[in-house]
Amino acid sequence: RISIGYLKFINKFNYLFNNNSSRYKINNLCNSRYIFFPGTPMGPGRYIYLNINSPRAEGAGRNKKYYSTQASNTNNIIPSKEQINAITGLLLGDGCLRNPNSNRRKTGNYRLQFTFKAQVYAFICWLKFSIFPRAPWARGALKGLCTDNLPCPYPKENPTQYSFESRNLPFFTELHKIWYSYNSLTNKFIKLVPNNEFLNLYFNEVSLAHWIMGDGYYNNSEKTIVICSENFTYEDIIRLIKLLETKFGLIATPQKRKFRRPKKG
């Protein structure tokens, strides 16, 4: 796990949001017309075109005729850069990318999945309906990243957690190549920290906020913000610590989780 000094974090975090608040407008697409996906072992880096007023399909360019004939295709949906910032933070936490049909992993598209404890239900709804809303320009099948359904409770009676998922999209299939590595021994994909090029582009103060909301807590005894990161390697944790210092001037340290023994009697 990663530990950050609380007071310095709060001071720095307030400064970052006060000076970048105009950048975090969920209902507007980013000013940049292109989203860059850094290269992976599976292929070189490439740009994905993003229309300022509407979601666009990869390779659509400026061809208005192409867009008009493809507008009803849900697969054309591409997140805004602000949404990718949020997704980056959530994937550093407990968020995941999965293919719902294991038989189609080579051809089927992936989707985002999130599970949170019931105590933060308000945050879950805010995330689903404000960060990943149904697109206001949507017509027909062209909707947002998620449906309008409420988060799913588990169990249904007295739920302890809630979950929701996005649509299956080619965009998330591409994102999966950056965030996951296939382990031939376990026959499973393992989530890893993306390369520095991707993090430099898409990890910002918004990402940090969602990372903490998804997998962080306040340690009152040590007066620190703790982010659980046990699923990543020590090398990746050190990379994240250096990223926090480089981007935000935050000094963080790696820590081992302390297990408390139950009291006798």
From TrEMBL:
Q: Which InterPro entries match?
A: Homing_endonucl, LAGLIDADG_dom
State a single Gene Ontology molecular function: endonuclease activity
Sorted UniProt keywords: Mitochondrion
Look up keyword Mitochondrion and say if it applies: yes
Under the heading SUPFAM superfamilies, the entry gives: Homing endonucleases
Source domain of life: Eukaryota
Residue limits of the Homing endonuclease LAGLIDADG domain?
Answer: 86-258
Q: Can you name this protein?
A: Homing endonuclease LAGLIDADG domain-containing protein
Q: Which organism is it from?
A: Nuclearia simplex
